[in-house]
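Figure 2 data, in text form.
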Amino acid sequence: MNNELSKLYPHKMWEIFANICAIPHPSKHEEKILAWLKDWAKEHNIAYDQDETGNMVLRKPATPGYENRVPIIFQGHIDMVPQANSDSKHNFVTDPILPRICDDGWVRATGTTLGADNGMGCAAAMAILIDKNIEHGPIEVLVTVDEETGMTGAFGLKPGFIKGNILINLDSEDEGELYVGCAGGLDANFELDYNLQATPADMKGYEIAVTGLKGGHSGMDIILGRANANKVAMRLLKKGLENFDIHIANINGGSLRNAIPREAFVTLAAPANKTADFEKLMNGLIADIAKEFSGTEPDFKVELKPIETPKQVMCKKCQEKVVNLVLATPNGVVRMSDSMPGLVETSTNLAIVKTENGVLSVANLMRSSVESAKEALADDMRAIAELAGARIELRGGYPGWKPNLQSPILKTMMKVYENMYGKTPEIKAIHAGLECGLFSLAYPNWDMISCGPTIRSPHSPDERVNIESVGKFWDFLVETVKNIPVK
């Protein structure tokens, strides 16, 4: 555990977060953190249950005299997105996250994602359970699993597992904002077969390495106009194919469906007698693209490196289909919301592009707060796949969460915030997949809201959480608990 974190306010919340960081917990590998959570509950005499999916609920009875308050649920997901810089050797399955307090008032990790998404939310809920100074009604803490790679825990939640009536999701990322709606999502995965052939004679090997991009959350950060490493790599390949007899050997770009790809790597062969002209063309294009993204990608870097000539490459027609398919696949904001200014309604993230064993795989994550718009985008993807001769699989769909501006918990929390801080919190919807949309399938009568401390660049190694915002977020939660109405 990082003892320095526990010196920050609120001490117990930061101490719990430090313990969470010390235990590896990437998506699909939550067994260690869940075992620790059970031991923690036993240590503090907190009752808990676990469902067949792996979700846990921890229960604390009401403070004497508060039994007539409406039961509430605090909810967070225990898994984290595993992203590291290319020069990092961090193993997310075995190595702890190494948080550090920075002089600018933020906590960051060392070369990796921090896991403040959603470790801070889980830590806050757990700290409330063990705080003996808070008078409260019945409290449950719902800890879900595998949110980041498909919302497995939320999909698996069954009616009757949870008893409360009000759910406060702790997975949004701006203090002073209350979220009442979110986007739904759907994966669109392409597969395109290609043939390999022996590399022609008199060729020189190259690697194109796209690095240094910011990446980030494929929902919340998609509006920022950051470069997509896969798109950058394909632009270079397209011009290479048009001007030289190059041959592509391998493509490896992006790593997670819900993260904007920060890096992409391509190996290829170019005519040995035209290397000077090829390098001149590529370096000129690289300079032009860097200029395009100078405002959003200050660390943009593309290197053209000589390597050993690959022994096998794609056939000529195959590589043209591969590059054209990726270039034709949409990426970024598709439409802005009409009802909430500044909110992205529909987007898509061209997340992963990989070639292996004669198959190109392309993973896209589509998001929309309008179900018909999400379906229309899926139809676009089907059409692109059909034209390219590729296979498409649509999977992992989940609904959005429709805003309810008459929500009782919204009115309560707005009043509490106004009394505490002298201003009205912003009411928003988020262009990301909160679990609330899925919860409403099993618990349609829940009154739900989402809030959190200020977190920036989740799903990337630049992830950080603002220290001051954590204290305000905690004080706000505590005061909210005290003001939950009677049944």
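Caption note: The chain has eleven helices and 23 strands.
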